[in-house]
Amino acid sequence: MSTHSSRRSFLKYAAAGFSTIAASRVALAQATVEPSPHALANERAVTDPVNVEVNARAIPNFEPRDRTRTRFGSLNYRSGLVLTSPYRGFGGLSGIRLDAKGERFLAVSDQGGWFTGTIRYANGKMTGLDDVEAAPLLGAEGRPITEKRGWWDSESIARDGNLVYVGLERVNQILRYDFAKGGTRARGEVMPVPAGVRKLPSNKGLEALVVVPKGQALAGTLIAFSERGLDADGNLTAFLIGGPTPGQFSVRRIEKYDISDAVLLPSGELLILERKFSWFTGVNIRIRAIPLKSITPGALVDGPALFVADLGQEIDNMEGIDAHVTPEGETVLTVISDDNFSMLQRTLLLQFTLAE
């Protein structure tokens, strides 16, 4: 049995086992003094700018059980990498934004850190990362945001030229950075947010941010999605911040999926990356397409699933998505996973093309 098959089998059976011992784990937790989430976060926090060595192993097949298969829903598998690093703070990657060529990237870790670098390609397939640097997200005072209690959980990122927006889940705040003032050394400015954002659950709050560019409906709007902030009907809440029609709307929640990220395509389709987890089935991910023009204050929006995957494919806790268009006109989706700094999980960087 291959190493990858062994790992997937272990996760599958471990999930079932965990459900059986859940009660005993609760009892154990009550009797055990555990470090606070803030203390755990600081162990992995990026404290100073540093060059990072990142190793990459290719994922030649998205579905190891059928190596001839390349089509998955409306997507074609392009290439993938398993990323590892001796740097203790590498991991927890929860959002990514690429340049127009799909080469330079800006990623955010859920431990209050930036990661920048370049994706290396050969014949259209990813082969590794170059020039990777980590740096702490700074607050308005010029100090790492991890020094503030609860401010380390940076889960989402959006970019509009030199302006970069980062969503902090635990405190449900949005920081705005002007990269013209030092790039990743810039200081974050706290943005005003709607009252509904501040009321989101602390651990299921802000999870995805999208800036609508000029030429699109809602141009100038920052769209903020909650992971599992629910409205009165059990649907996922989202917010239109700034722009021509600020307000709140909902995304229909189907099969208990939660939102983990989103990206807006030039076509005007908003792709929402979703995931769910259970002790019995493990991790499942899905990408849904929502027409941007359907989003208005008070609306309940919905759209078809373009892609669905589970642990039978090469996935993990996929938390970030972005898109770029190649010179040949192909739309490439890049998806990254948050390994939670766990030995049982991986940092995956996957690319697909949208089928015609």
Describe the structure.
There is one protein chain. By secondary structure, the protein is mainly beta. About 10% of the residues lie in helices and about 45% in strands. The protein contains 4 helices and 24 strands. Strands 2, 3, 4, 22, 23 and 24 form a 6-stranded antiparallel sheet that branches. Strands 1-8-7-6-5 form a 5-stranded antiparallel sheet, with no helix packed on it. It has a 5-stranded mixed sheet with strand order 13-14-15-16-20, with no helix packed on it. The protein is globular. The two termini are about 35 Å apart. The relative contact order is 0.15. The N terminus is likely disordered.
Task: Describe this structure in a few short sentences.
The protein is mostly beta strands and 356 residues long.
The share of residues in extended strands comes to 35-45%
| Strand segment count | 24
What is the overall shape? globular
**What structural category arises from helix and sheet content?**
mainly beta
Q: Gap between N and C termini, in Å?
A: 36 Å
Alpha carbon gyration radius:
20 Å
Any low-confidence stretches, pLDDT <50, length ≥5?
1-40
Task: Give a short account of the largest sheet.
Answer: 6 strands, antiparallel
Mean pLDDT across all residues, rounded? Answer: 89
Helix-strand string: HHHEEEEEEEEEEEEHEEEEEEEEEEEE
The level of helicity is: 10-25%
Instruction: List the total number of helices.
Output: 4
